[in-house]
Amino acid sequence: MKMYFPHLKRWRKELTIGKETPENPAWKGVKGLIAKMADSLSVAFISSVDEEGFPCTKAMLAPRKREGVKTFYFTTNTFSLRVAHYKANHKASIYFCDAEGFKGMMLRGTMEVLTDAKSKEMIWRDGDTQYYPGGVTDPNYCVLKFTAIDGRFYSDFYPRSFIIEE
Fold first, then answer.
1. pLDDT, mean of residues 157-161
2. How confident is the model at residue 17 (pLDDT cuts 50, 70, 90)?
3. How far, in whole angstroms, is CA 6 from its chain's centroid?
């Protein structure tokens, strides 16, 4: 039945979820799901736009820190291709995928490359010297700060679009 029902017209509906209001309790559930997926999954996918305008996606370790469901912080190499993309075009997306539950969460927004000491120290962890031998001041260590604007959630053959106004 799961194979048949999603193809019926009445099942192919899409729900657009705006900001959280008393009239819109659906946002609260989606907001919780974003947080749960970001906190529990070990891998996130980030996308950038290359110099020819094509999307480029890469698997990354999960975000080191998040502020609500709007801002996410990742570590990466300063001299990477992805950082060059974000410096030229800040448009980005991140995607969380729960393969077991067949759920996916895509967030669209912007990505900033942060190299200041405060940002780098904020998400530094013991053991990071295996990637950045120079420690927190290693010139090849930087922080990616993603700020979400909107997103799309998919579960049980049912897509939901939403806006993030946190």
1. 80
2. low
3. 27
Calpha distance 136→122 (Å, rounded): 10
CA–CA separation, 113 and 32 (whole Å): 27
CA angle (101 as vertex; 94, 98 as ends), nearest 5: 25
| Whole-angstrom distance, CA of residue 113 vs CA of residue 87 | 7
- Whether pTM > 0.90 for this model: the answer is no
Distance CA 105, CA 31 (A): 11
Q: Which residue has the tokens 């969380």?
A: 96
Query: What percent of the chain lies above the pLDDT cut of 90?
Result: 64
What confidence score (pLDDT) does residue 58 get? 96
Residue 52: phi, psi to the nearest 5?
-100, 5
Three-class DSSP labels, 141-162:
EEEEEEEEEEEEEEECCEEEEE
Helices then strands, each counted (H, E), the chain: 3, 9
Polymer length in residues for the chain: 166
**Could you identify the residue written with the tokens 């799961």?**
2
The angle formed by the CA atoms of residues 11, 16 and 22, to the nearest 5 degrees, is 115
